[in-house]
Write a structure and sequence with these properties.
The chain is mostly helical and 311 residues long. The chain has a single domain, classed as Up-down Bundle (Na+/H+ antiporter like fold), CATH 1.20.1530.20. Helices cover 80% and strands 0% of the residues. The protein is built from 18 helices and no strands. Helix 2 packs across helix 3 (28-34) and helix 15 packs parallel to helix 18 (280-310). It starts with a helix and ends with a helix.
Length: 311
């Protein structure tokens, strides 16, 4: 990639990611047509993110796994319980907002967390180690959380496990092959170009992730705006709470905990619930999916300021 173009993409990467989501909403035909390519795009995103993580960083996380284990327990069990405890007293028991908030909190961390971590200055190795078991638990944990909330989520554990194995196996194997062929010194020199391609692929992945959102937004614009505000507020508050809970953790772990506390695998949840336009619950989850691509632009200044202060 041309250096000037790569630099331009990196400087405006976060707005570009948000623009990808807007394109997916504005062009629903394109979003639907590119949906079958989402798994391949996701593998590419994770592969590039892995190329940017030094093996020593993974080794450091695995040698001292306590922080990763605590974050995993927090995002899997602690956050859903906290959300339910805070919202259940103020929202009706049959409220789709209550059900959506708890389900979002129970959904595993987004698999591309490492990519967002690289762009926001969090710990990509730590979040990769957290994301793998978090998603592995989803086939059992997510249906249980849905049943507690009285929501019918059609989760196929075998299919979900197969998709996860394909994503993780392909990305790790591909990254190992590229690293072996190119060598770590060459990958370090290529870091700016890798980051530019990472931004482009995340922006492209936003398009199929918005499949079904455009028609739902056109049908109920006011309702969707309110649901988006609710989902965005939930995401930002959870990130702040996650940071506070782990603020005494070393390095970038606190920022990483905040990022993964609010950023969840909404594609997985939407696949279990059906089309976004079928119910208020589905529409709220679709709005939450949109926040995943809008959020980085909003939180980047805060992440940079906190990272600077913690140095």
């Amino acid at each position: 990639m041309n250096g000037d173009i790569g630099g331009l993409i990196r400087r405006h990467g976060l707005p570009l990611i948000a623009a990808g989501a807007v394109v997916g909403i504005a062009l629903p035909g394109l979003a639907a047509a590119t949906r079958p390519w989402l798994i391949l795009i996701s593998i590419s995103v994770m592969l590039l993110a892995l190329l940017r993580v030094e093996p020593a960083a993974f080794g450091e996380v695995l040698r001292r796994p306590l922080v990763a284990i605590l974050i995993l327990v927090w995002v899997t069990f602690g956050v859903p319980l906290l959300v339910w405890a805070c919202l259940a007293p103020v929202l009706p028991g049959d409220s789709p907002f209550l059900a959506a908030a708890v389900l979002i909190a129970a959904t595993p961390s987004v698999m591309s967390a490492a990519a967002f971590a690289i762009l926001l200055g969090a710990d990509a190795a730590l979040l990769t180690v957290v994301a793998l078991p978090s998603n592995a638990l989803a086939p059992a944990w997510l249906p249980l959380a849905a049943s507690v909330m009285g929501v019918g989520a059609q989760v196929d554990p075998v299919s979900m496990a197969q998709r996860l194995a394909l994503l993780v196996g392909s990305s790790f194997a591909g990254a190992a092959l590229v690293a072996r062929l190119a060598g770590r010194p060459a990958l370090r020199r290529a870091a700016p170009a890798i980051d530019a391609w990472l931004v482009l692929l995340i922006a492209i992945s936003a398009i199929p992730c918005m499949d079904g959102v455009g028609p739902a937004l056109v049908a109920r614009p006011a309702a969707f705006a309110g649901m988006f505000a609710f989902a965005l507020g939930l995401n930002l508050v959870l990130q702040f709470v996650g940071y506070l809970v782990f603020r005494s953790a070393p390095g970038a772990a606190a920022l990483s905990a905040g990022l993964v506390t609010g950023s969840r695998n909404m594609v997985l949840l939407l696949a279990a619930l059906g089309s976004p336009g079928d119910s208020d619950l589905g529409l709220i989850i679709a709005a939450a999916q949109l926040t995943l691509f809008i959020m980085p632009s909003l939180v980047a200044p805060a992440y940079r300021a906190v990272a600077q202060r913690r140095r």
